[in-house]
Amino acid sequence: MTKSITSFLLASTFCWYGFAQESNLKNLRQLTFGGDNAEAYFSPDGKNLTLQITNPQFGIQCDQIYMLDLQKDNHTPEDLKLISTGYGRTTCSFFMPDGKHILYASTHEGGHACPTPPKSTDGKYLWAIYPEYDIYVADLKGNIVKQLTNSPGYDAEAVVSPDGKKIVFTSTRSGDLELWIMNIDGSEVKQLTNGLGYDGGAFFSHDSKKLVFRSSRPKTEEDIKEYKELLSKNLVAPTEMEIYTINIDGTDLKQVTHLGKANWAPYFHPSDKKIIFSSNHHSTRGYDFQLFMIDTDGNNLRQITWESEFNAFPMFSPDGKKLVFSSNRMQSKPRETNVFIADWVDTDEAEIVNDKNLKQHISYLASDALQGRLTGSEGEKKAADYLAAEFKKLGLKPYNKKSYFQKFDYKVRLNPHDSTSVKANNGTNVIAVLDNKADRTIVIGAHYDHLGLNEHHHSTKPNSEGEIHNGADDNASGVAGVMELARMLSQNKSKENVNYVFALFSGEEDGLIGSKFMAETLKEKFPKVITMVNMDMIGRLNNNKALVVGGVGTCPDFSELIAKNKPAGFNVTEENTGIGPSDHTSFYLKDIPVLFFFTGTHTDYHKPSDDEDKINYYGVRAIVDYVFRITDAISNMDTVTFTKTKVEAGKKVPAYKVTLGIMPDYTDYGDGLHIDGVTDGRPADKAGIQSGDVLTRIGDCKVKEVYSYMDCLSKLKAGDEREVTVMRDGKELKLKVVF
């Protein structure tokens, strides 16, 4: 990068609806209407569901088990048939192999009243582990025909293997919440897990050989102490859980997710090679659970649901054609959860962002072997050859008939203060085409050059000539995004409504040279370019998941697309202007709508320390998937209208002659300017300002975001002293700064 600036809708009693982002779910249908409806699971023939319901409006004070006939088209509350005793509290029902009996846990032997739910004294969310729970088998008329467990403590969460031979359940009989397995008749009970923590919510693979479950396994002394204290009170705090798999004989325990927060309600995909689960790992504030899918080896995480703030308990039908889950979408009242069913459509495997590909591209481009990829250098040539070879592997056509290379010449000033320090230089763009025989085209681009050994003096580290500037974030990350999108779009089973041009520019660090050259020739080859998408520095997504999307104002429809397709948990700041510090500017100036994706500057920006080991691959993957959805939506628009923009919708960037010496977070959080980094020896550092502080005021000038920050700086001159106000760990600090 060249610079661091910048309804519930209910038709009668049922309805069909869907959300464009939820491409795996078709013909989505609501099955329940009102109350708290959850843990719905299919019968072996797929014709019925068993589920648990709480709905005081209908006299169901706490969870009871009901059955619903799926063969009806229009469901009403009257279609729900009670198949538990109606006493105590029940949980986790599951059909037996004959489809004529169900398995569930109940507290009714300990009393007919609903047990008192736990109350948190410190605001923590708690689950009750009722020791009265035992596991029963009942017929579909509610008659209990067998009790399978009768040991002291919690026995619940029982499910049956697809081959009908085994039952797995969770129990405290060993003193901890562990997984246990038994024969279908309750015999030969065996403990499967042994690690301290809550192992539960297990389901079998479709071949009945493995289990997937969620576990909260405390690691620190403090967490272990809290877990044991809560368990002694028959409570757990299910806020830190990960997904695991294990063989049914207790061998080969593997942790699948390492996401943090609560990952739970897992279920095997029909292939047994993937797992669908509910998670809030992405959430930076508030309550938000979405369904995700991940490979059993922990790779290729992707988001499945996008609507509402609670989606959980997914289960595939026995034939794998449908998915049932619980969600609070389309509520008629607050705190309502209903059951939904949808036709399942598998994602085209080619359209799944591949983690290994991203790492391969970034690792190679940011390796010392390429010596920083300076335009005109041997390292640039090696990078260009690598990129062209990758395009050729994908079967993409060269932009220049027989060559992927577009050569250009220019002059570079080695010293901005010396007009005599100009030298001739040359560079090479690498460009490939996916020709779908369409009359419209989308360009997806990124620059692959960087600073080399600081020969052109763009480094932010003083006296760094001769040091390799690898540029992993700037901009191997964006190049990897382009290469992965090229693979996804060229290898998938679909033929898009547009052509795609994948453009990798050089000369960006010297002033957008390569992209300017390409933009001059583009419309001769592709007269109807409807959008240019630029990715520059997408590799350092921060803990707030802050992403800046520029160019949103260059088409009146872009803002809606950006908001609708936003990855879960991301805080996206939309910037309207089509002019910015990267290559999309060259195309905007040719009256082409543009979008620009950028995760912000950081303390390693334009320094030798911008290395591959600091890349946030979770963020890169999510952003590439985001761009894929957005470009797909743009390709299906009837018209894409170009709109000229002013600098950030009329915000004039003020001129200023002083600096504070910080790396700002460009996301507008509304509470001030968040500081990503502080430069050593500059005014902020000398005053004691730290990375992570939120700048709210410079003297009497209020700072709201980056634009007001620059406005405040424009009122100062060198030597001025001001009291600067920052928020740190929730406390206000006032510090003296000499500018």
From TrEMBL:
InterPro entries recorded: 6-blade_b-propeller_TolB-like (IPR011042), PDZ (IPR001478), PDZ_sf (IPR036034), Peptidase_M28 (IPR007484), WD40 (IPR011659)
Family matches, as Pfam families: PD40, PDZ_2, Peptidase_M28
Source organism superkingdom: Bacteria
Ranges where the PDZ domain occurs: 658-730
Family: Belongs to the TolB family.
Name recorded for this polypeptide: Peptidase M28
